[in-house]
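Replying to the earlier thread about multi-chain prediction with a worked example.

Input:
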Amino acid sequence: MAIVTQNGAPPAISAEHLVRRFGKVTAVNDASFRVEKGEIFGFLGPNGSGKTTVIKLLTGLLPLSAGSAQVEGLDVRTDSESIRERVGYMSQNFSLYDDLTVGENLQFYGRIYSLEPARLKRRIDEIVQLNSLAPYFNRLAAQLSGGWKQRLALGCAMLHEPQLLFLDEPTAGIDPVARRQLWDLLFELSGHGITFFVTTHYMDEAERCNHVAYIYFGKIIADGTPNSLRELPEVQPHGTLRVEITTPEVTRALRFARQIPGIRSATIFGQSIHALIDDQFDLHELREQLLKNGIAVAEVRPLAASLEDVFVELTNKHQAMTEAARG
Amino acid sequence: MGNLFRGFGAVFYKEVLHVRRDFGTLFFSLIIPLLQMVLLGFGIDTNIRQINTVVYNADGHRESRELIDRLINSDTFHVIRYVDKDEDLNDAIIAGRARVGVKIPVDYSDRLLHHMAAQVLVLIDGSDSSVAGQAVNVTTAIGLDESLRRVLQDRSTFAVDMRPKLLFNPDSRSPNFFLPGLTAILLLNVTTFLTAFSIVREKERGTLEQLFVTPVRPMGLLLGKLLPYLGIGFFELSLILTFMRFVFRVPIHGSVILLAILSLPYLFVSLSLGILISSKANTHAQAMQLAFLTILPSVFFSGYIFPRETMPSFFYALSYLVPATYFINITRGVILRGAGIAHLWTDGLALFAMGTALLILAARRFQKKVIMA
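Result:
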């Protein structure tokens, strides 16, 4: 069964009702999603929610308990070896050999993918150029800083020119500058049609993806573009408005805000409070009420939901549903 | 099917780089066995000689002194003290200063002169059975010899003349017995530990996880890891044999080339064992403990120190499962007895079968417990 998009090309990944059980535990529970070619697909979820298991299912390391999936048009049940030839994978700890030099690490991965010598040499040159690794070529990987290690690891995962790359928490533990540079690189590469499957904890990174999905205890509870998720009725119920209240006294303001009848929910975000209010509720009136109670309010303004808001709302809702089902 | 070993060349290349870069570890893993060999080769003598002995000679006449001289001349006893009280004799043994106490009673020479049976009391500390056994044998033999001489008087030939001849190790040199066996233990040490560590290190660093998402096949990975260490094990074997031959002067009666060939299946077994250990262990410390667990049966049940023939039948059967059992038979066979392939091919075959079984088991476990974990 080949899935074909409007333009005729199969998607990079199409997963239908993936299930993976470990004994009695269901690590992945009926997960379906698809990733189009050239997308940067952000796969989010708390630790232990099944992100790495999904990667293992898609690369054929773990057999599916039920469901089906195609990666680059190949079936994970029958063609996992061809899939592993075609995709790249970068694990969260950058999986480099510390006692090998940058050049040797690249050589090793090139040989793993059986690149013939001429092509390997060309690819190593290209990767070194793309990731500006030239000055470090003969240095041991152990001597590189986190950001450079990550560039090298990405280089190793890309040597064989995969069209799809799985990046498992690529920015964990690296500095903000290196993070930004990595994302710039991802955008550049995705412009050349390479698809990225990226797991991350960082919401700002999620915001940069073309497409995000959120997995919560094995179930995918959100899937779409960041904008479409912000407009989900669960996140932004009909007749409500999301506002940001900026105040130096966030804790006191929160305690008070939660007692105002028109405010449905409120959470602290740094120096401000994000609140979901009835859209009948006048913003000026809200401000007056707070000021009257001696809370110095700098500003009250409408706010688009952030992805963090989205995931918090969805998680809460999902938890409530599970508890209701159990109770 | 070449595909089954996909990634072998790449992994081999990388392992050689690791070994070259970490020269210190390699150096010590080669040198420490040689040191062990020197310590054991010079330090251990399985022949029991010069047992500390106290003597209470209550008689004191010529016959009694002659008997004591005979004991001393046997080379088995070393008289550390002469005492003149029973208590002192007992004390010396209880205190551990002497293992053997000889008491010649006051009427010893008198009774001999009157052609009556004379008694000699020999007290032996039984806490070390091999020392005690030797003391019993030698004192009994001297007593028997002494009696026969007196009975036979001038006719000096015995009716039956037993002539034992020690083959292969005529001087009963301990290094000749010890070192060929030790070779098996030392090789096991180096190869099992090195392979187990090389894989566990990749587990600890997370690089193994990365490798599984590449087209590398488990067999390619495992063989790529195994072969460089096979080379190291082989080099270690040559070092050990050179030391044994030229430092300890153990003659090699058989073919060195045969020994080299038959060591390959043994190295294969011990390397596969290392891989099997690494499929179970997740940290260095765990790998270390498991590897030591394999050393113990190799030392105690392989015939290296204790003869297998005297083991209870359960342990005797168990000794057939210990790879070192076969290899010790091979080393002692080739080195001491000059055995050829006709005598030893079954041992080689048994080792090869074990190695193959272990490697397949290890590859399966890898597939199940490591890749799919």
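The radius of gyration of chain B is 28 Å.

Feel free to reuse this layout for your own posts.
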